[in-house]
Queue: 2 jobs
Job 1
Amino acid sequence: MKTRDRIVAAALALFNEQGEARVTTNHIAAHLGISPGNLYYHFRNKSDIVRCIFADYSAHLRRSFVPVAGAASASPALWLHYLDAVFYVMWEFRFLYANLNDILQRDAQLHRQYLELQRELEGNLQILLQELNTQQVLMIPGEDIAILAQNLKMLVSCWVSYQQVQLPNVQISQAMLYEGVVSVLFLLKPYFHANKGPELSQLLEHYRVLAAASGDPFHK
Amino acid sequence: MKTRDRIVAAALALFNEQGEARVTTNHIAAHLGISPGNLYYHFRNKSDIVRCIFADYSAHLRRSFVPVAGAASASPALWLHYLDAVFYVMWEFRFLYANLNDILQRDAQLHRQYLELQRELEGNLQILLQELNTQQVLMIPGEDIAILAQNLKMLVSCWVSYQQVQLPNVQISQAMLYEGVVSVLFLLKPYFHANKGPELSQLLEHYRVLAAASGDPFHK
């Protein structure tokens, strides 16, 4: 791995473990066993590293939430794909969700990029919900799609920081984030077409099991 | 008004206008035209004032969300009462919602009180939803009441800080918070009994009008 990539990976790991505010460029350099000068050769400052991580975050979200049209949009496999992607970004970039307001307030350029990404994702989410209506998986009154998409986006955006307030002194765990995925499904539950009940139950059960697990399934 | 009460009122107003982090005890004293010494006679420090405001906040919430049993729970007037109370606390104590994580992280005692209050409110909300089921206003599957109550509580808790991220450089307005009330109703909408449609529409319309108003209806 190139030094630049190693710096980004180490920063992400340290931010997630200790919170972005507590980690300095010196910590990151020390963690990698490189000199601060070597780090500064690649990045001007910590904000620069955060922006680089944010670019990965955006790319990941853009790749994962491409709306699928037609019958394929109704496949249970696609639901798993989307919901796993929700979990993945919450977990992999949890430092961002944990401290979003502070991080964005410090960096106007990042904030603009964030809002652009949000608008794009909300648009895609609306297209997806519309498509699931067409495929008779969901039955959302047309005029409610926009506000439902907004509520879903808000739930995902706020989940990590809300859990931190509700469970102080508890480390963010994967189980905690799977509970967020269950809540996302729960927001959609009333709109599921009656004959999709079994599929919904299976999905809910799948994520409830993961939410109840105390372990760390990805990193065992 | 007693000096102590004037200090609390001035602090609340300044916190709401400028954000709690930016306001010092010196600002509060200067704003009231009293000496810092006089302020310190009443409060040891800013945390002391925040705790005092938090006590008002708690008392208000406890008074406003007493569950009502029987037919009375189904009256549209009660819905207005509860939803207005949601708006009122979000507006009146918006500095708290804007910066909850930071404020609570700094003060373990306050955090404990906050969590106790949250547990109490969530319990009351569950009782209320149960009662609205019994009165056939809502039709929530029994096993879904807990998670619905949780989602409602989360929405209200996160609304202000979420709006701040989505709309940077925009002052928190009453219209913005009425939109939060509309979202609360929207979460409940799929559970309304079919014959309660007209009542729900009226409620939604009432708060949508307030959310669309650009003015400041309370303080004109």
Job 2
Amino acid sequence: MGRRDLGLLFSELPCETAAVFTHNIVSGAPLLVTREAVETGGVRAVVANSGIANAATGERGIEDAYVMQSRAAEALGIEEREVAVASTGVIGERLPMEQISAGIRLAAGVLGKGGAGFAESILTTDTRTKGTAVRAEIGGRTITVGGTAKGSGMIHPNMGTMLAFLTTDAAVEGACLKETLSRVTDRTFNRVTVDGDTSPSDMALLMANGAAGNEPLTLDSPNYPIFAEAVENVARTLAREIARDGEGATRLVEVAVEGAASEESAVALAKSVVASNLVKAAVFGEDANWGRVLTAMGNSGVTFDPGAVELWFGPIKVFSGGEPVPHDEAEANATLASGEVKITARLSEGDASATAWGCDLSYEYVRINGSYRT
Amino acid sequence: MGRRDLGLLFSELPCETAAVFTHNIVSGAPLLVTREAVETGGVRAVVANSGIANAATGERGIEDAYVMQSRAAEALGIEEREVAVASTGVIGERLPMEQISAGIRLAAGVLGKGGAGFAESILTTDTRTKGTAVRAEIGGRTITVGGTAKGSGMIHPNMGTMLAFLTTDAAVEGACLKETLSRVTDRTFNRVTVDGDTSPSDMALLMANGAAGNEPLTLDSPNYPIFAEAVENVARTLAREIARDGEGATRLVEVAVEGAASEESAVALAKSVVASNLVKAAVFGEDANWGRVLTAMGNSGVTFDPGAVELWFGPIKVFSGGEPVPHDEAEANATLASGEVKITARLSEGDASATAWGCDLSYEYVRINGSYRT
């Protein structure tokens, strides 16, 4: 492949680690192994490969995932249960275990020597690495939350082919870490859609090793909201980058719904718009086709009064009171020409709001997915 | 536009008429008028236009739909309540009422003079007209069921931008006709998906004028199953033609699910596969990517054991017992090269089965929908 396709992430200190996994019934072998490790407690390393997902590979695939875990533990000098395994790529093919084992030894040898090796190793059809970090003060200590992710195709609410690894040096109690990752995933990664398909391989991990030396955080700590916000900021940045780098995407599309009856309704409405092939193709074609936005909302399963909806493309109001607002169409189309497109829908059902992220549907998406394996 | 875009369908005899409408919350003005007419009883004419959907056009759009109904009634010399109105096309623009009125007079003048004028008048991005008819014997009388439809984009289970008009000379009681259309729609039109979007304009009408002179049918008539089958055959043919002529489609994709726990589960599984962008793009690329089929099933919301699933592309078994069945990949890809692609999934959850129809996802779909209005 001519690029890195195996990576190790490792904390020298012990960690608290939380994880969330795909909701797809078809779940890859690595998820079984990682779920088990996270439940046992103490995961402080990740071994990840791209190219082959090790999903739909039967019993032998599960054995391969355990071997991968074991080889990584050996190379790092830690317990097997301390290693999470992640794979992404083609479904139904077995891992080339000799190359995997050699790759693990190689990666362990260069650990701590810098470089974006891990972020690169997890990419598939992604066009660039994704990473970010934020700092915050907690009880006089500076803590850092960092993260890297891959996305691209099969991305949809409820975790598409997405791998996200968040790390922090904050000290956080286990239950608190778990709740934080779950809440944040709901508000960030689960609001991204590229193509409506979900993958068997998706996971997000949040590892905290306590090196910052703060009093361990619980949900009740006065400083907890600062930590939660830092994690959400990292996750939101990664989620947006995943949407922006969707397969074949030329634009990031952000859909904001306001005035919904509940956050759940707002999320469903925003996701329905951002997932609509017709809306996505219209954005690609720079056609401010608000009829498709309204129709996608009507198709969301949420009940609302269409006559009370207001729609904007960027700052331009295009629909209100059940009919079009006269506007300069060229100007509305121009709001779709930049790299970031914002569509806003305001209802009069209540006070809830939500944002979802996606991308346009281009010729390139069809090209990539018409010839992924060949 | 250089093609017919207004049509009239008319029965000289009075009719029983049943109708089903879009489930989209955003519903076009013509649907309001047609629903009212069908509920009042006696609809025996349809006036339809393509190009503008008359949806999201406010109070004035509703007035326009009533005017359209009234002009058609006048031209045909019947009551307003006997006329159904259907519009399809761009959302949010008002109808050019002068042209519509002139078109109605013109169409009324050539009624009964043959030709596929009506079938052509309802097309939007469709590439060809769709029509079929079947004959059957009922109590010594020959009855005919015929139908025409348009589809193309915004097609999805629960009635995409689909118009379907079925007519029969059988005598059928009102309640029986209604139940027949509802059942048949569920098993045919609602199992078609082109792009997962639904439209505000969709409707299917079934008109029966009794000219065949049979004893009026009820659900309990010994001959009812013959009639129901005839209607279902017409609707299935139209549904398949809609899928085959999906926007940008190069192939009809038929997904059959067997061995499901319930018909509802089988439908959900089949629809999830046929609606998956990744499956659709793989078919376009002639890539027998069964991993995407399995994953789309896992993403359907239906619970099942993936390890007990068997998958076929055409006659070639590709997955069984939780892992790939060794097969000639070129041979499997070749099953995607013809105009009709068949994908079969067999579960071991029960005895229920269902079939759904769709099409591939091509560059042309993106081109059409990136430049529909412009």
